[in-house]
Amino acid sequence: MRTFKNHLHQALKDKKIARSYEEEYKKLRIAYEVHAAREHLGWTQQQLAKRAGVTQQMISRIENVTTPNISLKTLSLVGKALGLDVGFVQIGRAHV
Q1: 43, 55, 66, 91: least surrounded by Cβ within 10 Å?
Q2: Is residue 72, in this structure, part of any structural domain at all?
Q3: For residue range 28-75, what is the model confidence (pLDDT) as tens digits?
Q4: What is the average pLDDT value for the chain, to the nearest integer?
Q5: Alpha-carbon distance 27 to 21, whole Å?
Q6: Residue 36 domain boundaries
Q7: Terminus-to-terminus CA distance in the chain, angstroms?
Q8: pLDDT score at 93
Q9: DSSP state of 89
C-alpha cells in the first residue's frame, strides 16, 4: 500500500514540484505562526491588526494564505506586534 508520505517523497523528486511545495510550505508556516501566536495571546484579528498598524483583512489574508505576496514590512509589523522576529530558518528543519 502506497502512503501519502511515500507519494510525496516520490513527487518531490521533480524539481518543479519540489519548488512549488517549498513555496507553499513557507506560506503555510507563516500563517500558522501568526495564528498560533495571536491565539496564544488571546487576541482577535482586529486586536492584532490595531497593534500592528494593518487592517483586520490583512491579518485574515496572512492567516488564510490568500495574499500571494506579503511585504517584508507588513510581516515585520505583524511580527513585532506579536513579539516575534522575522528572519531566516535553516533549510531542512523538521518538515516532510
Answers
A1: 91
A2: yes
A3: 989 999 999 999 999 999 999 999 999 999 999 999 988 777 899 999
A4: 88
A5: 10
A6: 4-82
A7: 19
A8: 54
A9: -
